[in-house]
Structures are given as C-alpha cells and as structure tokens.
C-alpha cells in the first residue's frame, strides 16, 4: 500500500473508501510528523466530535485491519510508503529531478474543507512548505541548464516553478531570480513577472542578451568575449557591462594589442574623453560630429558613467548617425543607446584558473579577488575596495547574506530594514559585481566572513537582527559568533539554539562535540541534562555523573544517573536510580528499563534482561527514537543468544530493522561480532567486524569503523595471526585519530603495544586514556602492563 497525498488523497493498493477523508488525513499526518499521542490525534482530527477518542478508536481498528497503522495504549504511528515523505527524502539527498517527478499536485488538495482549524493550518503550512522546496529545486535545475546555454529548457522550468500548484505567491525579492531565466528563453511569462515587480515597486530592466550573459557567468578565460569583440564589423557598436573590478579594463587592454585605441573616461573640460581621438576639439558639436563620423578605426571607451557629459552626448548622436569605426564601450551601467552586441562580464572559471593552485577555491572566481590573490595581496582589502564602490544598502544586504548559512533574501531584507525595491536594487548591484549568486549565496564566503570579522560593530548589529528571524538550528552559528563579540554575554534565544544544535549533533553521532558546545554556556537544568547525556554517549561517565549531581532527582535525571552508575560499576546504586525512574514518562522508563536489562544480564538473569530490553524497545519505538529502538533490540538479541537461541535467529529482527541505515546497522554488526567472539566463532566474528567497518564508512561513522577494526585486531591476535592483527590495529588507530576519538585512539594504541611487546608505547597509551578522562579503561591497561612486565604476555581489549 502507498499513501498518495500530492494532488489528492488516496490509499492505493487497498480497498479503502476514497471518500473516507478523516482516516486518510490521520495517516497523512502520522506519515509526515511521526508517532503522536492518541489523545492529541483524536482532538486534532475530530475536534467537533462528541467523543473524539472513540472516533479515533474506531478508525484505528479499521486501519489496523488493513495493516496501515500501528498503535499502543499511548501512541499511534504508521510505516506506510508516502509520496510526500519520499519527496522530502529526494530533496535531502539532492535528487531534485526525482522530487519534481513525485510532485503531482498540491499537498492534500481538496482535503482541507473537512478539517478543524488546527489541522487545516497544518495542511496549508505543509502544502506551502513542500511546494516551496519543489519550487527551489526547479529553479536550481533551471539555473544549471541556463549555465550550459540551454535557455529554453531553463525557462520552461522557471515557468513551472512560478505556476507550481500549492505554492505561495512570490515574495518581492524572489522576482529578480525568475525574470532572467524566463527572459533568456524568450518565455512569455517574463512579462507577467515584470508587471508584478512594477506593481511592487521593483524595477526589472534587463535585455534578453543581458539575461543570457548573466546566467552564463562562467567562461573559459575571456576568449569568448575577446573573439566577439575582435570580429565586430565597421559601424558596429558593442557594450561591455560589469561591476567595478570585473575585468572590463583588462579586456579592453587586450583588444588594444590588436590595434584598438584605448580611450579611458575623463572628466573636467568638455570633450576631454574624445580629445585624444579628435586632436583638436574646437569647432562646436556639429563640426566635431562630422569629423567623428569620418574617422575609421577600433575605439575602446573605458567607463561610460565616468565620461564627461559632452563626450557622452556626442557619441550618442554618432550612434544614431552611423560611423565607419568599430566601437566598444565598457561600463557598469546598462547601455542608454542601441548596440549590436551586449556582453555581461561574469566570473573567472575554474578552468581558467587551473594553473594557479588555490585561486578559484579562495576567490570563487571573482575577478577583483583573483587579481589580489595572484599579487599575494590581502583578499579582505580587495573585497573592501570592491564593496566601497557599491551602495550602503548593497553592503548591508551582502553582510547579512554572509552571516546566513543558507541564503534567504527575505530574512536578509528584514534584518536590515530595507523595502522590496531597495533590496532588488542592492541585489542587482551585487549580481553585477559577481559577489553573489542569483539565489543570494555569497561567493568566496571565507573572504567575506573575514571581511565582516574586521567590522565587529556591523557584525554584532546584524547577528542581533538576524537571529530572531531564524529557526533555532539556523541561529546557532550566529549566537556562537555573538559570544566572541559580546564578551560571552548570553542573549535571548541563545539557550534554545544551543540545545537544538547539541541535539542534532547527538542524532548524528557526535556526542563529544555536543558536550563541548553545551559547555560554552552557563548551566541550566535543561542544558546540564543534555550535556550529561552527551558525555555519557561519549564514554565520559564520571564527568557525566558530576554534571548531574547539581540537578534535582527527577525521573529523567534518575534514568540517566542509573545508566551512568551501571557504567561506573555501581550496580546497586544504578538499580535504585533506575527503579525510581520507572515512575516517570515514557522516555525515562525506556532509559531505566534499558539499565535494568543490563544489570540483569550482568547477573546472568538473561530471561529478565530479555523482558526489560523488549519493553525498552517498545517504548523507544513509540517515542519515534529509531536508533534507541534498534539499540534496545540489539541488546535483546544478545540476551536471547545467551538463552540458547541461535545467533542468526536472535539477531534477525534487529538486522532487518537496521537494513536501511548503514550507521545503525554497523553498531548492530559490532554486537553480533562480539557474540560470535565470546562463543569462539572467530571466523564469523571477523566477518561481522569487516561488514560493520564497511557499513560505518558508508555512513561516515569513522568511530564505529575504528571500533570494528580494533575488534578485528583482537580476533586476529587471539588466533595468533600477528601481522594481520598489527594491520587491523594500525587501521583502527588511523581512523580513531581521524575521528578525534581519544578513547579509541588509546585502546588501539594500547592493543598494538601489547601485540608488539612495546612497554613504552603501552605507557603512552595509558597516559593518553588518563589525560582524556577514561580512567576506567586506563586501569585495565595498567593491569596488563604489570602482567607484561612479569610474564611478557597480555590480552587485547575489544571496543564496546
């Protein structure tokens, strides 16, 4: 069965009635939002019902019969395939075309009329969010095609993005991104965009050629422009447009070598710019115009906007009259007269800069920065000079965009208090200068950040303006920068942002980094609890317990305290804390049951351990904690294997549950290897460890891969395969160092030292473990060091 939510609402592959909207809305909500409490769902879907819980009960019974939903006494959830979920996954993995194919229409189209206010708000919000993401995907593909010169196809995608069902009307700052794409492909919707912009006070003045030039910003050198200008016929005029320091002068100077007459703009006296060409400027404008019309040659005017007014007027009249010369004019402005060829100077390409290592990476191809890089001048000073030529509004928008991890023109505009028209003009300046992409992404961002760091007052002002406009995760990097600017002062919203960031680090498997981040702020109960949890997952149990010591014994604190006390070898204290935590909520109970399961296992009560682990797994699943659920299933598998169940059968369920998550699967395979190893099945253990390492590397989990190699080394060590053991320990050591895992580094180094009978290196490994706070592990290696000194033999340690 598959739930279709895009362009309608239907449970395909079932005989479920299409008109039964509320059950399908329930499935849609759970598919996108994950497990939810039953009471919340009842009041959300049936707010007007006399007995919402009974309505939910009836629907759950029907949907369970179809196998479409799962529920327990507290929560409900679904594992149905859903097109909206697949669309989000495609977008997150960069499969833009796949996401666009999945989008068959607006989310839950037509279903909102049968909903309460809260559910209806969710439908509209989700509809617009999904449509916005698809719109951005279409624009990204359109810009890629335009960069390759496929302007018609690019315009079709831009049109599809503009007319996308379910999408909100465009914001004023979004219009300038659509217009060049449509204009470059001669799409009729360009005029619609232009009219909308005018009504909002945003001017979109661009020719098709200019749009194509802007979109095709990367050239292989300047050969393309050089060739176009070199082949102008007598009487033809060309206009080279680009911001300051985009290479206009350099291009004209190259043309000068081909016989052109370079004429820089001059001010002061009338006709100052034309004087080198005319010689004498006496005789009045009519006489001078007649003389100009009779001169042939290749004229190269540099800086129309800086030229004296009389020379500009005479050249304008000459263009209308016609001339025998080939004329090239460079300017930052659009041409005020008709020209045969308009060139927009873009960035220098990576190909052009390939002979200058590091140039493209450092500068993003911005010509002004490239020149400074090649002259070994500070790039921040070159950028500052470049920005001085722009308006104050452009500089403010540029600085705001520099601070944003993901470009967001609407947020940048609001943070500096500009109107739509001012923002569009500022963006136009930045685009012409090649400093930003059409999306608002800042080029050469490293240089931009260093430039902004040199202006602490501006940076602090913008951080305070931007942070409240962003989500907690998006705001965290700004708050972290703000601490360096405000002497460590803690701002409103900072704690929420730090908690969100640390929580995300924990989800992604970086507990040590999460603990370090949380240590930056003054402790609060919520911060301390999360920091203790991060330290526990990083293996720093003593430190985690110390952080908890200042907190009152709530069930959640007791649950974590129980896990830590068990890890520190204090079973009775751990049992007491865990049993008290059972009085808490589902999360505290799950943690406590896991600890009680470990205690039962260590005492040889495998039946009791299995019961505790099974209950913990059920709770983690209802909470939507996928990885903790699989962790409990893995513990259950170990306990079941101790009860006599075959290893393959015991681990079948958890391996199946982890099949689509290589990071989680790698940890399960580590446990499977440990069971095989304890039973003396060394070949099977080695096979599990090798597969665990491969899965971990696929997921980018270097620490898990290091553990697998360390354990593989132990297996080889036990089998007397010394060279293979040494290779495995060396690989574990390299991966542990790369991952920054000091505990694993110390263990791999210690095992390698034992294998090679190097007592000095073993002492260094012990010192490393003690210095990094892993004193318990260090004690084990001290005992082995004493054994080695006495007998010359030892036993390596597995990673758990």
TrEMBL record:
Record-linked SMART domains: TPR
Keywords carried by this UniProt record: Cell cycle, Cell division, Mitosis, Repeat, TPR repeat, Ubl conjugation pathway
Gene Ontology BP terms: anaphase-promoting complex-dependent catabolic process; cell division; protein ubiquitination
One cellular component term from this protein's GO annotations in UniProt: cytoplasm
Highest taxon above the source species: Bacteria
Coiled coil: none
Pfam families: TPR_12, TPR_16
SUPFAM superfamilies from the UniProt entry: TPR-like
Record has Ligase as a keyword: no
InterPro entries documented for this protein: TPR-like_helical_dom_sf (IPR011990), TPR_rpt (IPR019734)
Start and stop residues of the TPR repeats: 706-739
Official protein name in the record: Transcriptional regulator, SARP family
